[in-house]
C-alpha cells in the first residue's frame, strides 16, 4: 500500500513489535530454531510507522528484510534476549505486539565448546521451557495498554484452527489474538496470510486471504477503533 494513502491515525502512538524466530544455542555454532521469516512482524511495524506511530521493532532471526523507514530496530537472538528487549520496549509502549516465533524450549546447558562427534551416538539434548513472554507482558500491562498475540494453528483431532485460537486467547489473556491457519504451505515463508482476529471481548473477525501488509492494516484498524489514543 502507498504510505501517502494511509490514514495518520497512529500519530504519536508508541508501538512495540517483536518479529522473527528465536535461536537457542546448543553450542557456539549450533542452535534450535524455527522457520519464521519475520515478514509479518516487519509488515506490522512498517504499516504502524506509515500511520504515524513511534515504533520499536525487536527482531530475532529473520529473512533478509530491509529495515522499515522510521522504525527503531533492536536485534536479538535468544528468547531470553527477546524477553529483555520486549519488557524494555513495552514499558514505553501504548501497544505491544508479539509476532515473534519464540522457541518454547531451549537446551538446558549449551556446550561451551563445539560438540565433537565420536564413534558412539550422542547423548540426548536436555531441554527446558522458555518463559512465556506474551503472558508476562499481559501480567505487566498498564491501564489502557493494548497487548496483541499471534497464533499459528493447524487444527488437529481435538479441535479446529478457530477453537485452538479461542482457547489460546483465554489462556494468554491478551486483548487481541491474530489466528493464522498454517500447514499446506500457508503462512510460513510465503507472502500471504489468512485467519481471524479475535478480541478479549469475544468479537471474531475473519481476515481474508491477502498480503501481510493487509493483515497488518486490519489489526491496526481494529486497535484504533477500540482505543482512545
Ligand atoms: N509466545 C511468547 N513466549 C513464548 C511462546 C510464545 O511470547 N515462550 C507468544 C508468541 O509470540 C505468540 C503467542 O505467544 O504471540 C502464541 O504463541 P504460540 O506458540 O502459538 O503459543 P504457545 O503458548 O507457545 O502454545 P503452543 O506452541 O503449544 O501452541
Ligand atoms: Ca509455541
From TrEMBL:
- What range(s) does the DNA/pantothenate metabolism flavoprotein C-terminal domain occupy? 10-224
Q: Does the keyword NAD apply?
A: no
Pathway annotation: Cofactor biosynthesis; coenzyme A biosynthesis; CoA from (R)-pantothenate: step 3/5; Cofactor biosynthesis; coenzyme A biosynthesis; CoA from (R)-pantothenate: step 2/5
The entry's free-text remark on the cofactor is: Binds 1 FMN per subunit.
Binding positions (CTP): 104, 114, 131-134, 150, 168, 172
Residues of the region (Phosphopantothenate--cysteine ligase) are 15-229
- Which cofactors? FMN; Mg(2+)
Signal peptide interval: none
**Could you say which EC number(s) this protein's record lists?**
4.1.1.36, 6.3.2.5
Q: Which reaction does it catalyse?
A: N-[(R)-4-phosphopantothenoyl]-L-cysteine + H(+) = (R)-4'-phosphopantetheine + CO2; (R)-4'-phosphopantothenate + L-cysteine + CTP = N-[(R)-4-phosphopantothenoyl]-L-cysteine + CMP + diphosphate + H(+)
Ordered alphabetically, the record's keywords are:
Decarboxylase, Flavoprotein, FMN, Ligase, Lyase, Magnesium, Metal-binding, Multifunctional enzyme
One cellular component term from this protein's GO annotations in UniProt: phosphopantothenoylcysteine decarboxylase complex
Q: What is this protein's function? A: Catalyzes two steps in the biosynthesis of coenzyme A. In the first step cysteine is conjugated to 4'-phosphopantothenate to form 4-phosphopantothenoylcysteine, in the latter compound is decarboxylated to form 4'-phosphopantotheine.
The protein in question is named: Coenzyme A biosynthesis bifunctional protein CoaBC
Upper lineage = Bacteria, Bacillati, Actinomycetota, Actinomycetes, Pseudonocardiales
Of the intact sequence, the residues represented are: 184 to 412 of 412
